[in-house]
Write a structure and sequence with these properties.
By secondary structure, the protein is of the alpha+beta class. The chain is built from four helices and nine strands. The protein has a single domain, classed as Nucleoside Triphosphate Pyrophosphohydrolase (Alpha-Beta Complex), CATH 3.90.79. Helices cover about 30% and strands about 35% of the residues. The protein starts with a helix and ends with a strand.
Protein backbone atom coordinates (compact mmCIF):
# COMPACT_ATOMS: atom_id res chain seq x y z
CA UNK A 1 0.00 0.00 0.00
CA UNK A 2 2.78 2.46 0.87
CA UNK A 3 4.51 1.74 -2.47
CA UNK A 4 1.29 2.67 -4.28
CA UNK A 5 1.03 5.91 -2.27
CA UNK A 6 4.69 6.70 -3.01
CA UNK A 7 4.07 6.28 -6.76
CA UNK A 8 0.89 8.40 -6.54
CA UNK A 9 2.58 11.17 -4.56
CA UNK A 10 6.11 11.25 -5.96
CA UNK A 11 6.25 9.77 -9.45
CA UNK A 12 2.82 10.09 -11.08
CA UNK A 13 2.61 13.90 -10.86
CA UNK A 14 5.99 14.21 -12.56
CA UNK A 15 5.85 11.33 -15.05
CA UNK A 16 2.25 10.57 -16.02
CA UNK A 17 0.11 13.63 -15.33
CA UNK A 18 0.40 16.45 -17.86
CA UNK A 19 -1.74 19.17 -16.27
CA UNK A 20 -1.42 20.64 -12.78
CA UNK A 21 -3.72 18.89 -10.34
CA UNK A 22 -6.56 20.88 -8.80
CA UNK A 23 -8.77 19.39 -6.09
CA UNK A 24 -11.84 20.80 -4.39
CA UNK A 25 -12.54 20.30 -0.71
CA UNK A 26 -15.38 21.34 1.55
CA UNK A 27 -15.40 22.53 5.11
CA UNK A 28 -18.95 21.40 5.79
CA UNK A 29 -20.74 22.84 8.82
CA UNK A 30 -23.82 21.45 10.49
CA UNK A 31 -26.64 23.59 11.83
CA UNK A 32 -24.90 23.33 15.22
CA UNK A 33 -21.62 24.67 13.80
CA UNK A 34 -19.84 21.33 13.84
CA UNK A 35 -17.31 20.36 11.16
CA UNK A 36 -17.64 17.22 9.06
CA UNK A 37 -14.50 15.13 8.63
CA UNK A 38 -13.99 11.99 6.58
CA UNK A 39 -11.75 9.07 7.51
CA UNK A 40 -9.84 7.94 4.46
CA UNK A 41 -9.80 4.32 3.40
CA UNK A 42 -6.25 4.28 1.96
CA UNK A 43 -3.94 6.44 4.08
CA UNK A 44 -5.83 6.29 7.38
CA UNK A 45 -6.66 9.53 9.14
CA UNK A 46 -9.19 12.37 9.11
CA UNK A 47 -9.46 14.85 6.25
CA UNK A 48 -11.79 17.28 4.54
CA UNK A 49 -14.09 15.59 2.03
CA UNK A 50 -13.66 16.45 -1.63
CA UNK A 51 -12.00 15.30 -4.81
CA UNK A 52 -10.95 16.03 -8.35
CA UNK A 53 -13.11 17.85 -10.90
CA UNK A 54 -13.95 16.02 -14.09
CA UNK A 55 -12.76 17.51 -17.38
CA UNK A 56 -14.74 20.69 -18.09
CA UNK A 57 -16.61 20.60 -14.77
CA UNK A 58 -16.96 23.87 -12.87
CA UNK A 59 -15.20 23.78 -9.49
CA UNK A 60 -18.33 24.40 -7.39
CA UNK A 61 -20.22 21.75 -9.34
CA UNK A 62 -17.35 19.32 -8.75
CA UNK A 63 -17.40 20.16 -5.05
CA UNK A 64 -21.13 19.47 -4.73
CA UNK A 65 -20.79 16.20 -6.67
CA UNK A 66 -17.76 15.00 -4.72
CA UNK A 67 -19.29 15.87 -1.35
CA UNK A 68 -22.49 14.05 -2.25
CA UNK A 69 -20.55 10.99 -3.50
CA UNK A 70 -18.35 10.83 -0.40
CA UNK A 71 -20.84 11.83 2.30
CA UNK A 72 -24.39 11.52 0.95
CA UNK A 73 -25.02 15.17 1.82
CA UNK A 74 -26.17 18.03 -0.34
CA UNK A 75 -24.45 21.29 0.53
CA UNK A 76 -24.87 24.97 -0.10
CA UNK A 77 -21.60 26.71 -0.87
CA UNK A 78 -21.11 29.83 1.26
CA UNK A 79 -17.72 31.09 0.08
CA UNK A 80 -14.24 30.26 -1.09
CA UNK A 81 -11.90 29.95 1.90
CA UNK A 82 -8.78 29.88 -0.24
CA UNK A 83 -6.35 28.17 -2.55
CA UNK A 84 -3.70 26.01 -0.91
CA UNK A 85 -0.85 25.57 -3.39
CA UNK A 86 1.11 22.53 -2.30
CA UNK A 87 4.49 21.49 -3.64
CA UNK A 88 6.65 18.48 -2.84
CA UNK A 89 4.68 15.28 -2.22
CA UNK A 90 1.66 15.16 -4.55
CA UNK A 91 1.87 18.74 -5.90
CA UNK A 92 -1.58 20.26 -6.32
CA UNK A 93 -3.78 23.22 -5.60
CA UNK A 94 -6.64 22.63 -3.19
CA UNK A 95 -9.53 25.06 -3.62
CA UNK A 96 -11.31 24.95 -0.25
CA UNK A 97 -14.89 26.12 0.26
CA UNK A 98 -16.95 26.77 3.35
CA UNK A 99 -20.27 24.93 3.00
CA UNK A 100 -23.45 24.31 4.95
CA UNK A 101 -25.08 20.88 5.07
CA UNK A 102 -28.41 21.36 3.28
CA UNK A 103 -29.95 17.90 3.04
CA UNK A 104 -29.30 14.32 2.10
CA UNK A 105 -28.46 11.39 4.31
CA UNK A 106 -25.00 11.13 5.88
CA UNK A 107 -23.32 7.88 4.86
CA UNK A 108 -19.74 6.82 4.12
CA UNK A 109 -18.67 5.71 0.63
CA UNK A 110 -16.09 3.29 -0.74
CA UNK A 111 -13.53 6.12 -0.31
CA UNK A 112 -14.40 6.88 3.31
CA UNK A 113 -14.31 4.54 6.31
CA UNK A 114 -16.33 6.88 8.50
CA UNK A 115 -17.80 10.37 8.70
CA UNK A 116 -18.01 12.34 11.92
CA UNK A 117 -19.01 15.78 13.11
CA UNK A 118 -16.43 17.51 15.31
CA UNK A 119 -16.39 20.70 17.31
CA UNK A 120 -13.93 22.95 15.40
CA UNK A 121 -12.23 23.66 18.75
CA UNK A 122 -11.72 19.93 19.49
CA UNK A 123 -10.29 18.37 16.36
CA UNK A 124 -8.90 14.82 16.47
CA UNK A 125 -5.16 14.28 16.78
CA UNK A 126 -5.38 12.07 13.69
CA UNK A 127 -6.44 14.95 11.43
CA UNK A 128 -3.80 15.27 8.73
CA UNK A 129 -1.88 18.46 9.57
CA UNK A 130 -2.28 20.10 6.16
CA UNK A 131 -6.01 20.53 6.86
CA UNK A 132 -5.53 22.64 9.99
CA UNK A 133 -4.74 25.92 8.12
CA UNK A 134 -7.84 25.76 5.88
CA UNK A 135 -10.03 24.99 8.92
CA UNK A 136 -8.51 27.88 10.88
CA UNK A 137 -8.97 30.17 7.88
CA UNK A 138 -12.61 29.12 7.50
CA UNK A 139 -13.52 29.62 11.14
CA UNK A 140 -11.47 32.81 11.58
CA UNK A 141 -12.73 36.28 10.81
CA UNK A 142 -14.40 36.22 7.37
CA UNK A 143 -12.26 37.88 4.76
CA UNK A 144 -11.27 37.58 1.15
CA UNK A 145 -10.06 34.14 0.06
CA UNK A 146 -6.45 33.42 1.00
CA UNK A 147 -3.69 31.91 -1.08
CA UNK A 148 -1.20 29.85 0.89
CA UNK A 149 1.89 28.12 -0.44
CA UNK A 150 2.88 24.98 1.44
CA UNK A 151 5.72 22.55 0.83
CA UNK A 152 5.02 18.93 1.72
CA UNK A 153 8.46 17.45 2.22
CA UNK A 154 9.72 14.64 4.40
CA UNK A 155 8.20 16.06 7.59
CA UNK A 156 4.73 16.03 6.00
CA UNK A 157 5.26 12.50 4.66
CA UNK A 158 6.35 11.24 8.09
CA UNK A 159 3.48 13.08 9.81
CA UNK A 160 1.00 11.42 7.45
CA UNK A 161 2.58 7.99 8.00
CA UNK A 162 2.51 8.45 11.78
CA UNK A 163 -1.19 9.32 11.66
CA UNK A 164 -1.86 6.34 9.39
CA UNK A 165 -0.09 3.96 11.77
CA UNK A 166 -1.75 5.46 14.86
CA UNK A 167 -5.17 5.10 13.24
CA UNK A 168 -4.48 1.52 12.14
CA UNK A 169 -3.35 0.56 15.65
CA UNK A 170 -6.18 2.17 17.62
CA UNK A 171 -8.77 2.28 14.83
CA UNK A 172 -11.22 5.03 14.04
CA UNK A 173 -13.03 4.14 17.25
CA UNK A 174 -9.90 5.23 19.10
CA UNK A 175 -11.17 8.79 18.68
CA UNK A 176 -13.90 8.12 21.25
CA UNK A 177 -12.25 10.40 23.80
CA UNK A 178 -12.17 13.47 21.56
CA UNK A 179 -14.38 16.16 23.05
CA UNK A 180 -17.11 17.52 20.84
CA UNK A 181 -17.35 14.38 18.71
CA UNK A 182 -20.79 13.41 17.51
CA UNK A 183 -21.19 10.42 15.26
CA UNK A 184 -24.03 9.91 12.84
CA UNK A 185 -24.78 6.31 11.93
CA UNK A 186 -27.58 4.99 9.79
Amino acid sequence: MYAKLAWWGLAAPRVVERTPLVVVQGIVRSERGELLLAARSDLRGWELPGGTPERGEALEDALRRELHEETGLHVSVERVVGDYVRSGFRPHTARVYLCQAAGGRLRPSHETLALRWFDPEALPDTLFPWYRAPIADAFGAPSAPVTRHEHHGLSSIFAGLAIDLKTRVRGIEGEANVQGRREIRD
